[in-house]
Give the backbone structure.
Amino acid sequence: MATNFPLDRFREIQTPFYYYDMELLKATLNEINVCCNGMPYKVHYAVKANANNNILQCIQSSGLGVDCVSGGEVEAAVKAGFDGKKIVFAGVGKTDSEINYALDTDILCFNVESVPELEVINELAARKGKIADVAFRVNPNVDAHTHKYITTGLNENKFGINIEQLPDVLNLAANLKHVHVIGLHFHIGSQITDMEPFVRLCEKINNLQAEVSKNGVELKIINVGGGLGVDYDNPDGNPIPVFKEYFEVFKKHLYLRDGQEVHFELGRSVVAQCGSLITRVTYVKTGTVKRFVITDAGMTDLIRPALYQAHHKIENISSDEKDTSVYDIVGPICESSDCFGENELLPITRRGDLLALRTAGAYGEIMASQYNLRRLPGVLYSE
Ligand code: LLP
């Protein structure tokens, strides 16, 4: 299932661009469906990872739902053909117009992050004569052991409602006529490759459910969020993430009541490996102690290395040189953080060569910016 790059097509179009291997995306979606078959599991793809319309359409045809965090994402999902009942809407700062739009779209559920938000949803739903289904996002205080910018389940984060406050919040909700609590929502962080934090999450949820059910609250949905990581070092060795192992954790450790569904919000693990950023070498510059490969892609096209010190595997896909050399791979942006890799071993690389930055399908294209007044990266699909 390793990605093959169609170099002839690449030579005809302007770089930099994202290349999506749609066969790999389909195989990934198929694996998710196989793992969830026969289980009360629903996967809502986290649109924030990649909102490209072709990608969304492909995900829609596979039967998954979507997790959105803005009105714009809900709109993108509707445009790609998702039914309202396949859409959940999360986020700490939903505006009135976003809530109204989601109410008009008859979405499945609002993931609510605070009491003031709950009250606003209740008021706006009342004006439309509707009852909004909601799930409370609870902060489980589980350490995901991942980068601090993408750890979200600890107490000091801005997300969710503290676990201790939940009983009061549930009582309050019971008195609001235009919201109906159908579930609890959790998310502990992203790029989690060790299954242990997910086990801890299940334990927290089991305890919380025991607590909540004492008060007679019935929950149809337990939403465990997203976060499954991918192999950035070896994309061809592990093109499809370890979904089986991941879903097994929940099968084994999460205690469900009769009729309960588990919802998952996977983003990165669905789309990361199918995407690569293709860039052309503009110059090779020899300094006093280093050799620099300067590419036409920069941090504006793929910000993850600059923002999270992330590393994407870099390959020279057009060279047949046998000899190698060590380079720093840098972009053209006026920031020192605009560096994709230091001391990278590549075949001898020359002006005009094409490089692929792998595992860039998630949080790549969608986070691109026009800083330095650059054009946004282009897009090419395998079919
Ligand atoms: N659900 C919630 C509530 C989330 O906040 C997120 C991601 C997801 C689901 C999807 O998580 P995933 O399955 O993709 O790990 N830009 C960063 C990642 C930010 C993740 C934010 N929340 C990066 O490039 O690493």
Summary: The longest strand covers residues 275-286.
